[in-house]
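USER: Please consider what follows.
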Amino acid sequence: MRKRSETIVVSIAVLGTLICVCLGGCGDKKGDAFAEEERTTYIYGDSIQEGDDGALLSVRLGVPGACNVEFDTGKSKLRDIRLSTENIVVPDTDAAYVVDYDNLKIKAEEIQKMVEGVFDKSAGIYCRNDGDEYMTKDEIQSDIDMAEIYRKQALEDGQAETAEMYAGDIKNMQARQKEAPDTYTPVSDYGPNMIYTGKADGEKYSLWVSANDDDSTSRGISIMFSPAGDQEKNELSRVDDSVYVETVPESSVGADVADMKNKCTMTENAAESEAMVFLSKLGLSGLASQSCEPVIRRWQNSTFDTVDMEKNGYAIEFGCQIGGIDVIYKDLTAVDNLNTEKGYVMQEGDKMTVFIDDDGVFYARARLCTDTNSYVRKKADLLNWDEMMSAADESIAEYYRRYPTAYSEVEFNNVELLYVPEVDSAGDMQYVPAWVFTQTEGGDVLDAGMANGHISQVVYINALDGKYIDIAETAKALGTWGGYESGKTISK
């Protein structure tokens, strides 16, 4: 998947071509031509501070295009620590900040704006508590109908035990259906952990907003917008022998579909614009488009073999961004020294994915933790590349001494400048610019931590002073740290 630098309101202009040279160590980026280029004034509403003749950070800091260096192993007990990459990712921006921020909390009136923003009020808006026990008779009947399709297909495939399992499920659902309410309740009060239904673009959809009422526990909210009518039945009717249909990003398919024609007539830019309108309806701000790729709809039979596929629509991924630099969102579940018997770092961050085709947005999911309206930004001076690497030579060894890894060697194959969370001296949260070193395995290093690979090693180096940022301690402060005690999960 191509890394994109577009933002919600404007794109950052490509200001020139960087010529990179690597001679056994780190190459050099030359950028004198940048001083004469006209700078973009705003990035999705963020004013760009003019300074240093408007030169990009990559130029001012002397960031090379590629790097192959060995770090001191110190007392880490590692045999070798190396950075070897042909692509150092630095966003096209000319300023960096230290940013104070608050965790995201959502109020009832904000949920009301979300619901009424995506649904047609004149067609009625309804709600129920989250949980299967609150499903209506019609919803349960839809599940019964689907289970019956699965049961019949299993019988046709000679899978008697599977068919019997579905028959048991149907019996249980029929028992629940007798006690179920006939309809959702027309909405009166709004709050978290409710499922809201209504009409959007003439079709029935649901909007689920989850949040924790207890401020002392985990932060953030989750959102899911999904079909709640006959959409799935209608799709299944298009393909014989299909019992299951799903729509996934092209990169998740695991098959060669690059040459398949997209039935969606929109361009990527038009799809992104429509997705941004949807975010606006939800009242979400501070999110930037980070990637856009086609989606594949595939139909599967009862043995989960794909019987048909089509390319139709796009998946647009949004994340937090500050002045053109992305806020980190990495899956660290495969990093051994962050997931030990003493505890683990849970995946958290800000990410939203919107699925869209010619008929509009048909699915969206989000996990949002940062109150982007709370930002207080203070201009920051970063170490140049050589100074940072000199400090990192000591910091990385110190990090691995404190958090030993089962690996005997570490070879970072990706490094990028991102904002990462850190606890300040007063115990408050702030985002700081940091160089994120990762070792990614099993996929494209340029898509580290996403569908095309997993992160096996990671170190955050503060771009202001070259010291490592303690990921585990930050997770504890954020409420995204778990521990183990007598086989039970505990919070720390």
